[in-house]
Amino acid sequence: MNELIAAIKQAQRITFLTGAGVSTHSGIPDYRSKTGLYAGAANPEYLLSHENLTQHPQAFYEFVTKRMYFPAARPNLIHQEIAALCNEKGTLVTQNVDGLDKQAGNQHVIEFHGNLYDLYCQKCGQAVSYEDFAQDYHHQIDGGIIRPHIVLYGESIASEILMKSAQAIANADLLLIVGTSFRVYPFAQLIQYRQAETPIYAINRESIAAPASVRLIQDDALTVFEEIRKGLETC
């Protein structure tokens, strides 16, 4: 911990790579645990796919609205500390689609997989509010199918997002991986763009799929960020 806090203090350009483990403390389940978003669902990858949205929009709508939306959730200390550091000297690349990082005031966020609350009609392209989507997946104006602007199974990451993310990694003099097993691609491939001398720390409850050079702090992210906050306050 002392080594990590010292690295954060010394860094001039930090890039964070985060996953579901950041938002679980805000009451949003992860994906694959026993109580996660996919628990009990038959073939959840298909339910959250472009094909299902196209062929069975009702089934897609029921899955995402019942399992993925937590409008009452609020940013926790991890979001807040990452936001403060990013606004001072960094960038966040997150897999999370809950929008909590922006709610925390983070002005330097790349939402790698999109944002559930960025909703639009596929027929006319008009933006739609969550409140309207929660009532019906048909656009009131033209009957088009409303969808969230997130990356579904069977869809590709936008080239602009890939480029911005890679650039954030390449520019960093410190990388922090937080709350992710780092097994989802192409997100997990992003560290290939780092400079060879850039140190990487990972904070996660379980071991992660990452190179041996990654320094793992195997602990709950909230506990670690409480220590980081205390350590930075003493600087």
Automatic annotation (TrEMBL):
<protein>
    <recommendedName>
        <fullName>protein acetyllysine N-acetyltransferase</fullName>
        <ecNumber>2.3.1.286</ecNumber>
    </recommendedName>
</protein>
<feature type="domain" description="Deacetylase sirtuin-type">
    <location>
        <begin position="1"/>
        <end position="235"/>
    </location>
</feature>
<dbReference type="InterPro" id="IPR026590">
    <property type="entry name" value="Ssirtuin_cat_dom"/>
</dbReference>
<dbReference type="InterPro" id="IPR003000">
    <property type="entry name" value="Sirtuin"/>
</dbReference>
<keyword id="KW-0012">Acyltransferase</keyword>
<dbReference type="InterPro" id="IPR050134">
    <property type="entry name" value="NAD-dep_sirtuin_deacylases"/>
</dbReference>
<keyword id="KW-0808">Transferase</keyword>
<dbReference type="GO" id="GO:0034979">
    <property type="term" value="F:NAD-dependent protein lysine deacetylase activity"/>
</dbReference>
<dbReference type="InterPro" id="IPR026591">
    <property type="entry name" value="Sirtuin_cat_small_dom_sf"/>
</dbReference>
<dbReference type="Pfam" id="PF02146">
    <property type="entry name" value="SIR2"/>
</dbReference>
<dbReference type="InterPro" id="IPR029035">
    <property type="entry name" value="DHS-like_NAD/FAD-binding_dom"/>
</dbReference>
<keyword id="KW-0520">NAD</keyword>
